């Protein structure tokens, strides 16, 4: 899997574009800047946008090629981000640290996903937000992006269970038109979540 992503991110073209995910942008534009975590951030499109909006950004991915492109994107925008090379399982987050965690197209096998999602809840500060967009299970067979294994895709029931400790402010399953670089392009079925940790 690491080799797959290194190959994809080694291409000079930004695989998912340089503009932020539309749902992430919509959410972050309404929030007061604070400290943000972006796991599996890839080439930095969301991290750089958030930094330009005044957020202190911690991002990570296991791809060295992704980090190089993210840092180049940040440099070109005259902003700074903290970007570590680490896996989802090995990232050492601290409790009550983040005002916002953004999970944008982070897909994992069920057991790993559930474990990671529980960690995210602990890393949020009280009143901190979680914003998620991912491919829904109905995306299976579509060519507009995402893994083609059903257990790697998500639905409402799974997310409500994973984040039952949070207050769910919005959860939405919908079709949308993606225009995020060459690998997220066309009509896609996605799921979106906004949740908040209780005080």
TrEMBL record:
Task: Output the Gene Ontology terms for molecular function.
Answer: methyltransferase activity
The answer to whether UniProt assigns keyword Methyltransferase to this entry is: yes
Asked if the record carries the keyword Cytoplasm, the reply is no
One Gene Ontology biological process: methylation
Q: Which UniProt keywords apply?
A: Methyltransferase, Transferase
Q: What name has this protein been given in UniProt?
A: SAM-dependent methyltransferase
**What domain of life does the native source organism fall in?**
Bacteria
